[in-house]
Amino acid sequence: MRTIKEIYINGEFVAPKGTQIFDLINPTSNIKEAEVVLGNEEDVQLAVEAAKEALKAFSQTSKKERIQYLKQLHDAVEARIPELVDVMVREYGGTYQFASMINTYSLDDFKAMTEVLNDFEFQQNVGKSKVNLQPVGVVGIIIPWNMSNGFICTKIASAIAAGCTVVIKPSEMSAQQTQVMAECIHAAGLPKGVVNIVNGLGNIVGAEITRNPGISKISFTGSTNVGRIIAKGAVDTMKRVTLELGGKSPNIILDDANLQEAIPMAVIAAFLNSGQACAAATRLIVPATKLEEINTLVKTTVANFKVGNPADHDTAIGPMVSKIQFEKVQDYIKIGQEEGATLLIGGMGKPQGLEAGNFTRATVFTNVKNHMRIAQEEIFGPVLSIIPYDNEEEAIEIANDTIYGLAAYISSSDTDRANRVAARIDAGRICINGLSHDSKAPFGGFKQSGIGREYGLFGLEEYLEPKAILG
Ligand code: NAI
Ligand code: MG
After folding, report:
1. Nearest ligand, measured from the Cα of 407
2. Which of 208, 244, 454, 462 is catalytic?
3. Which residues make up the CATH 3.40.605.10 domain(s) of the chain?
4. What residues contact 378, with CB distance under 8 A and at least 6 apart?
5. N or C: which terminal CB in the chain sees fewer CB atoms within 10 Å?
6. Which run of H or of E encompasses 135?
7. Which residue in 406, 462, 452, 410 sits closest to 433, CA to CA?
8. Which ligand 1 atom lies nearest to the CA of residue 328?
9. Which portions of the chain are predicted below pLDDT 50?
10. What is the predicted pLDDT for the residue at 212?
11. Domain 2-245+447-469 fold
């Protein structure tokens, strides 16, 4: 059995000062596959010192040098794609389909940021003055388990482009995935101390990153609850924060939508990353007059979705990341039934033959009322709520009746109409007629889905501090 014994500080793989061991359990089998020695506060302090030292020279690098580093990162990640996919499937239970897509997006992150950087001016004229856009400083990156290496690539692409140095704390559950990425970053040959990685627990390593005065900004992805804790702690030292948090994204099917296309797409969008996705389209808002037809289409689509071994290329839904996550999803399925929603397909318990892993049944509730907990709270598993509406106005009202505002989806055969509806939805990213991704378009949340944006120009600006020079 493998033990991950090292963290990455100042360009070297070193033993952490922390000694606590954390078990890495394969979610498909619930067998312990490896373990990791976790870092502690002192490891964060050492990593911050290295990042501060590296910042002196790195903050002064030219656009050309940063573009070269982005290329080196791109190439180093590209060289290990099959392993990055494999380790995501094994450690996290991400499906082969999802893991393959995400790792391609990681390469796009470096390419897109290179293009943004090419067109970007770090010195601008404003009024009678010059404004220099200076790197914000050392950035603390705190990320969850649901797309760990994807988050690292998105965030370091922006940080490097801006001239920042970073200390990354991945989820303790992602140590094997982190190890491969750390090796990629090492192979990329960045100056030492530009990227540092400390494995550890949220309340120890994450808390020290939040507290440490050497860190100027935190870029966090994860739950809204932890986002709140980090934002509160960050304000003590006035750290800037970018928070990419939870969602309960609406998918509005307008009455003129092509249901044969929109409904299978809706199921894919709901069960993205086995439902463990912040942007998952978990509220399907449909015309009441078409509810029966849509129920039938959803049921047929879900019945054809394979839940199973994430390594199989045709698996659509893998296991939940942990037993805790499995139990959480089970609880919500129970809550949905108690609240009086109609169970259309799925339900509690594990699918037959998949008892060993954290597999949950692909579950859809229909006739859901938007005030129910299953329609308001982020479940983070394959559970979809179908909510009927009487008219377009009510559809928009339901879509916006949420504490979240990360993503939204709209289907209509009339794109002008879809755009008119999009203008009235409070969400950071809206997909019309299908699922798509754009590595240059901003991503982030309205309301309690977060603060700030990632990707492209908007993402880059979050890592820069404007300095006006007058006279
Ligand atoms: P989490 O939000 O607790 O963990 C995210 C990261 O924050 C991890 O690296 C964790 O170690 C760190 N962290 C935890 N406590 C911290 C603290 N006090 N200070 C600094 N860092 C801290 O996510 P968790 O607990 O694994 O998942 C719980 C629920 O959150 C899920 O069931 C899901 O609903 C939601 N979630 C949402 C995500 C999203 O992308 N929207 C991602 C992960 C979880
Ligand atoms: Mg937590």
Report:
1. 1
2. 244
3. 2-245+447-469
4. 223, 224, 246, 247, 248, 278, 282, 404
5. C
6. strand 129-135
7. 410
8. 32
9. none
10. 98
11. Aldehyde Dehydrogenase; Chain A, domain 1 (3.40.605)
CA distance 364 to 13: 46
Predicted local confidence at residue 277, as pLDDT = 98
Among all bound ligands, the one having the nearest atom to the CA of 171 is: 1
Position in ligand 1 atom list of the atom nearest CA 209: 20
**CATH entry, 250-432, from 2.60.40.2550, 3.40.50.300, 3.40.309.10, 3.30.70.270:** 3.40.309.10
278 is an active site residue: yes
Distance of alpha carbon 60 from the chain centroid? 30
Record the pTM. Answer: 0.98
What is the number of residues in the chain?
Answer: 471
For ligand 1, say whether the CB of 206 is within 6 Å of any of its atoms.
Answer: yes
Give the pLDDT of residue 171. 98
Residue ranges matching CATH 3.40.309.10 in the chain: 250-432
Q: What is the pLDDT of residues 70-100, one digit of tens each?
A: 999 999 999 999 999 999 999 999 999 999 9
pLDDT at position 445: 98
Catalytic entry in 91, 278, 431, 462: 278
Q: What pLDDT is recorded for position 114?
A: 98
Q: Which ligand is nearest to the CA of 146?
A: 1
In the chain, the amino acid numbered 232 is K
Query: Does residue 21 sit in helix, strand or coil?
Result: strand
Query: Using an 8 Å Cβ cutoff, are 208 and 57 in contact?
Result: no
Question: 431 catalytic, yes or no?
Answer: no
- Between the two ends of the chain, the Cα-to-Cα distance in Å is 64
Cβ pair 284, 270 in contact under 8 A: yes
Query: Does ligand 1 lie within 6 Å of residue 407's CB atom?
Result: no
Rounded alpha-carbon distances, angstroms, from residue 461 to 37, 210, 453: 35, 21, 9
Taking the CA of 248 as reference, the closest ligand is 1
Q: How far is the CA of 55 from the centre of ligand 1 (A)?
A: 28
Which residues in 214-321 belong to E strands, given as ranges? 217-221, 240-244, 250-253, 283-287
The pLDDT score that the predictor gives to residue 458 is 98
CA of 226 to the centre of ligand 2 (A): 7
Q: Is 230 close to ligand 1, i.e. is its CB under 6 Å away?
A: yes
Measured from the CB, is residue 212 less than 6 Å from ligand 1?
A: no
- Ligand 1 centroid distance, CA of 292 (Å): 37
Cα–ligand 1 centroid distance for 144 (angstroms): 5
- Whether 200 is in the pocket of ligand 1, judged by its Cβ within 6 Å, is no
Q: Are 346 and 271 in contact (CB under 8 A)?
A: no
**Cβ pair 404, 250 in contact under 8 A:** no
Ligand 2 centroid to residue 261 C-alpha, Å: 37
